[in-house]
Amino acid sequence: MITLSIARTLRPALAALALTSAVFLTSGSANAMKIQSVKSPGGIEAWLVEEHGLPLMTMQFGFMGGSSQDPADKSGVANYITAMMDEGAGDIRSADFQEQLEELAAKMRFETGRDTLTGTFQTLTGNREKAGDLLALALAKPRFDGDAMDRIRGQLQATIQFDAKDPDKIAEQAWFETAYPKHPYGNAVHGTTASTTTISGKDLEAYRARVFARDNLKVAVVGDIDAKTLGAFLDKAFGGLAAKAQLNPVAALDPQGGPAQKQIVMDIPQSVAQFGQIGMKRKDPDFIAAYILNYIMGGGGFASRLMDEVREKRGLAYSVYSYIQPLQQSSIYMGGVATKTDGMDKSLEVIRAELTKMAKDGPTDEELADAKQYLTGSYALNFTSSGSIAGQLLGIQMQDLGIDYIETRNSRVEAVTMADMRRVAKKLLHPDQLIVTVVGKGKPGVAQN
Amino acid sequence: MRHIRSLPLLAALTLMTVQAPLSTLAHAAAPRAVEYKLDNGMMVVVIPDHRAPVVQHMVWYRVGASDEVRGKSGIAHFLEHLMFKGTEKLGPGQFSKIIARNGGQDNAFTGNDSTTYFQSVAKDRLPLVMDMEADRMANLKLDVKQVETERSVILEERRSRVENDPGSQLDEQMRAAMYQNHPYHTPIIGWFHEMQKLTREDAFVFYRRYYAPNNAILVVAGDVEPEDVLKLAKSTYGKLPANPATLRAERPTEPPAVVGRRIQMQDARAGQPTLVRHYLAPCYAKAAPREAEALDLLLKVLAGGSTSRMYKALVVDQKVATSLDGGYSGEALDSGRIALFGVAADGVKLSDLETAMDKVIGDVVAKGVTAKELELARNQYIASYVYESDGIGALARRYGWGLVNGQSINDIEDWPNRLKSVTAEDVKMVAEKYLNSKASVTGWLEPPADPAKKS
User: Fold this and answer.
1) For labelling alongside B84, which of A260, B12, B90, B376 has CA 20 to 30 A away?
2) Where is A50: in which H helix or E strand?
3) What dihedral do alpha carbons B263, B267, B271, B272 form, nearest 10°?
4) Do A297 and A215 fall into the same domain?
5) What is the pLDDT of residues B47-68, one digit of tens each?
6) Whole-angstrom Cα distance, residue A25 to residue A22?
7) What distances in angstroms separate CA A162 from CA B38, B45, B78, B340, one per listed residue?
8) Which domain holds residue A223?
9) Which DSSP string corresponds to A386-430?
10) Active site (annotated) includes residue B80
11) Angle, alpha carbons A421-A430-A313 (nearest 5°)
């Protein structure tokens, strides 16, 4: 919408944030959603919400693994495979495959993060079976033809080159490289020009065979389909996959090397920074409290302290935020800010001061009450389309939170006390340990705090 | 980043694709809007959708950046920011805090022709947000200090969106070159040097002139009954007086296009060399019958996605581009735009990419599209319509954009029928008429020849 219009705020579009913020039911809602746990005749499980109002179905599914399963010397394999999934399968070559998808008006999209590779599949009810055949072929028998591999390689490498000039992307990648040396989380999800040059169809097939497996699969379906029909559909779509995945172990590792401040020199009028430290694991009993704390600190838009102090009071930035990113083998409390060159020191100073203050005193009673009201009250807003509901259901499964999570989540938020918040603020926030990466004008080199 | 120039384009396309039911399938699935008018002239549009107990509440003002007085660029957007600074009743920043405290989300956006404020809330909070939105329509309060601070924020916003992004700078330059006289020339966010001088008084002048119920459209989508919304509207917005002075100044129009324009930018921050081509086109509200619909279909066939002619020719066959995209955006009050976007393959010169692109364009101008291509494109629109009806945000925007840009509800809902009536001859005709190099701007963005010098 940028050319059409410009919005007042940009909120970071982060899967982790969406997943964790989104699972609150309005209690007593007349439209309470019914989640069915479906098991196909072939043993594939899915969560289903039937919604027959529109003749369409959205299915989201995910495999554990993501880019952390890339071979050590070939970063970018998982990302490469996501771009190849509609480039031909079985006997159908790329152009025909895409044309058939279009004729059926089906949508198939894949993406990868560090821990998970996910797919979204949408079809109109009338075309469901034919579209499902294409999906099944793509998952089990992708072609990875040489000409398509080369074409997609060109696109991926162009992306890598654009990212190499994008201040936000540079700051983020520098942060991960600093925090996760010699660990898969430190590698660029997109890979590098060098790594993508060496990746072949065989590498993609090897990844697919290891990761795309039924015991490694979670599925969420929302829309115009009943449980019985879905059972058969699941067997068709995923039945061709191996029974068991063969994932390489990923070492547990907290972000390393803090405190650190790294300046990457770039001739731009506005500097951007990423700051981060050890976060909170998703399975930690204090995660919910940490999540509320982040809402108050920097996750809650105009309700957050960072926005208030950096933007509203001082006009230093348009965008300032923080979030908790729980990974399978790590967790990060991360934030970002963008400000004119000579505003960066001040912005970081304000951010550090706010983190310090929060660690020392915790939030106010009013902040905690407001946060709880927002987090519990806004639940329903994340369930307003088939796609958003499917996304929530998949996220809950991928994080292994249980099918009753939606029902229990609100009361768990409510149960967090001020004592919890103060304890967790001290436990979570370590402004003296921040790893900061800044891209912009300024002195080169690495300065330790 | 590579998407920055193509994504907005696609967003615009998306809006166009969802206007109304196309097939009986889509028809059955389409919620229909109900329209009222308050005594003070405010339009009220309700789109019931009872699938989730939530509502999307939007107020669309018929005023945007292109209504600014010359020299005050950015004031429409600046005012949009300042609208969150409080009223006689509400303290600074309280608006968003109260929405959040009620489990809601809110935001706003400014366009060339409109300014929109919206909230997503549980349905029982609708009276609250209507009360608050009506309050700030009439009772804005601004203190000088806050205006100063917020001006720093919009300058940072401009640095983020434009100064820090050469692709965005190219787009701004191309727009300025395309529109030589019409205010679409000026960026929505404003020119930096003019934004620096915007004052509290500038904001109030704009506010007093344009923010009034008779210049606004209320759109509510979600779990509501139309009569209930009307009742609430009467007791909130309905109490505000109309302002007869909201009339928009007539906008200058474009002279005939004499020659195509070129913007060649070299920037150390550019990635792979990129080619962008824009053509001036009519918008939905002002196009001759079926022209805008034919442009949608033409651009889908020509450059929409990996099955398009241009992708196949430039990316798959000739391998002169790694990415290729394009589309028509017609959601505007005065004028639309055709945009094509390509990233050069390694070692390919932009001039060669441009030659290859022009050949595909020349071919479609000379021969038009096939019946099969046309049908496939239509098919895509049917699906998009259904997919995008699946969400109250998209529903509310569908109507809001159409209405604020001069279409009627009937125009919006009749869109599929018009689309159905488009023939291959119509498509050929708009190709000949609007893929006209005289009314085009071509943009090149690439790194300097010797990047070592600059970076």
Assistant:
1) B12
2) strand A45-50
3) 50
4) no
5) 999 888 999 999 999 999 999 9
6) 9
7) 51, 43, 31, 19
8) 43-238
9) HHHHHHHHHHHHHTT--TTHHHHHHHHHHH--HHHHHHHHHHH--
10) yes
11) 75
The CA distance from B111 to the nearest CA of chain A, in Å, is 4
Percent of chain B at pLDDT exceeding 90: 83
Nearest to B268 among A267, A303, A313 (CB): A267
Cβ contact, residue pair B103, A381, below 8 Å: yes
pLDDT for the residue numbered B113 = 97
Mean pLDDT of chain B: 90
Contacts of B390 in chain A (CB under 8 A): 54, 56, 58, 385-387
Query: Total domain count for chain A?
Result: 2
Q: Taking residues B401-409, what's their average pLDDT?
A: 94
Q: How does residue B452 score in pLDDT terms, banded at 50, 70 and 90? A: low
Averaged pLDDT, A343-360: 97
Do the domain assignments include residue A395?
Answer: no
Q: How far apart are the first and last CA of chain A?
A: 40
- pLDDT of the residue at A25: 30
Pair B129, B271 in one domain: no
Residue B20 has what pLDDT?
A: 28
Cα of first residue to Cα of last residue in chain B, in angstroms, is 19
Q: Please list every residue in chain A whose beta carbon sits closer than 8 Å to the beta carbon of residue B222.
A: 384
Note the pLDDT of residue B307: 93
User: Does the structure show a pLDDT above 50 at B122?
Assistant: yes
Q: Does residue A319 lie within any of the structural domains?
A: yes
Q: Which residue(s) pair with A331 in the sheet?
A: A326
Q: B164, A385: Cβ pair inside 8 Å?
A: no
Q: Which of B305, B376, B391 sits opposite A384 (nearest CB)?
A: B391
Residue A318 touches chain B, beta carbons under 8 Å: yes
Same domain for A66 and A199, yes or no, is yes
Q: Are residues A147 and A110 in the same domain?
A: yes
Question: Using the beta-carbon criterion (under 8 Å), do A317 and B156 form an inter-chain contact?
Answer: yes
**Closest residue by Cα to residue B329 from B280, B271, B397:** B280
Query: Do A153 and A104 share a domain, yes or no?
Result: yes
Question: Based on the domain organization, do A193 and A277 belong to the same domain?
Answer: no
Selecting from B9, B12, B307 the residue whose C-beta is nearest the C-beta of A102 gives B307
Q: Could you tell me if B162 and B106 lie in one domain?
A: yes
Residues B215 and B316 occupy one common structural domain: no
CA distance B299 to A276: 44
CATH for A413 = 3.30.830.10
pLDDT at A2 > cutoff 70: no
Is the CB of A200 inside 8 Å of chain B's CB atoms? no
Rounded to the nearest angstrom, the minimum Cα separation between B98 and chain A is 9
Number of domain units in chain B: 2
Chain B residue at shortest CA distance from A27: B53
Are A387 and B1 inside 8 Å of each other by CB? no
How far apart (Å, rounded) are the C-alpha atoms in residues A171 and A165? 10
Residues in B closer than 8 angstroms to A8, CB to CB, are 80-81, 84, 107-109
- Calculate what percentage of chain A has a pLDDT beyond 70: 91
Q: Which residues of B touch A313 (CB under 8 A)?
A: 149
pLDDT digits (tens, 9 = 90+) for A27-69: 333 346 899 999 999 999 999 999 998 899 999 999 999 999 9
Q: Please report the pLDDT score of residue B52 as a whole number.
A: 87
**B269, A266: Cβ pair inside 8 Å?**
yes
Residues of chain A in contact with residue B172, where contact means CB-CB under 8 angstroms, are none
Residue A352 burial by CB count (10 A; 0-12/13-18/19+): exposed, middle or buried? middle
Question: Cβ–Cβ of B379/A105 closer than 8 Å?
Answer: yes
The parent domain of residue B313 ranges over 261-448
Contact check, Cβ <8 Å, A269/B29: no
In three-state secondary structure terms, A121 is: strand
Q: What residue type is B347 in one-letter code?
A: G
Q: Per-residue confidence at A384, pLDDT binned at 50, 70, 90?
A: confident
Task: Note whether B163 contacts A269, CB cutoff 8 Å.
Answer: yes
